[in-house]
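Notebook, student rotation project (T.W.).
Task set for the rotation: take a protein with a known small-molecule partner, predict the structure of the complex, and write up what can be learned from the model alone. Partner molecule chosen: zinc ion. Sequence and SMILES entered below by T.W., checked by me.
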Amino acid sequence: MFKKTIMFCLLSAALTVWAGKLPEQLPVPGGIVELAAGDASDPAPKVFFQDRRVLVIQQDQQWLALVGIPLNTRPGEYQIDIVNSRGSSRMRFTIADKEYPAQYITIKNKRMVNPNPDDLKRIKADRIPIGKALRTWTERQQVATDFIPPVDGRLSSLFGLKRFFNNQPRNPHSGLDITAPAGTPIKAPADAVVIDTGNYYYNGNTVFLDHGQGLITGYFHMTEIKVKAGQKVRQGDILGTVGETGRVTGPHLHWNVYLNRTKVDPALFIAEYMPILAARNKDRP
Ligand SMILES: [Zn+2]
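Predicted structure of the complex:
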């Protein structure tokens, strides 16, 4: 009996490819939905949400689709399309509502709230390399989702907040802000390849990482950038340092995470670290 159990364990270990810790699932706008998309003994299916390819990883004996839900999604019924060797099928899921709080921020540099015509030209030009970086899709089989926090700091602003700069409504907060002194190292949360680096009007010094199959991360407002486009990084490698370049009120890392070209809540990828980062706010007014 004991021997049999061991045999079974060995067998299931051989069949299982451990994708590592998964992000937390949260079926709301800005969240992530995880759906079983077929048996792992079949070749990996192609999965689409709103005509965009979706990350598919092997988890135990199944293919699992990790679907990023855009912040402007209305609550209701949605579907993914699953295409495999047998044809295509649909799977439905439900998105619930989430009320994100409002945040009022005072920016001293007025041009960061109401850019002049030259600034607007630059903002428009910035969209080209940023858009190109965010359209990256690589067919990597092993996509590491077991992230570590990119900065050892304190949480200063959550994803999804409805933002007002100098009382003027602007886009909701697209990432997670971690505050740390300027010069604090920013680390790769998982193995990845550097897509591009740049200096942009709002984002300041920026790095984009490709983790595979549309899982992309972005690092904004850096002082120094210490990596180059095309460079492979391992989890924990230093990408650069925390800074206050672009539209900021002080030094911090603004961290974005994208799935299927959709900004999702980065906190879902570091859920177990969030209480530690949040607790550091208690020392602050
Ligand atoms: Zn931010």
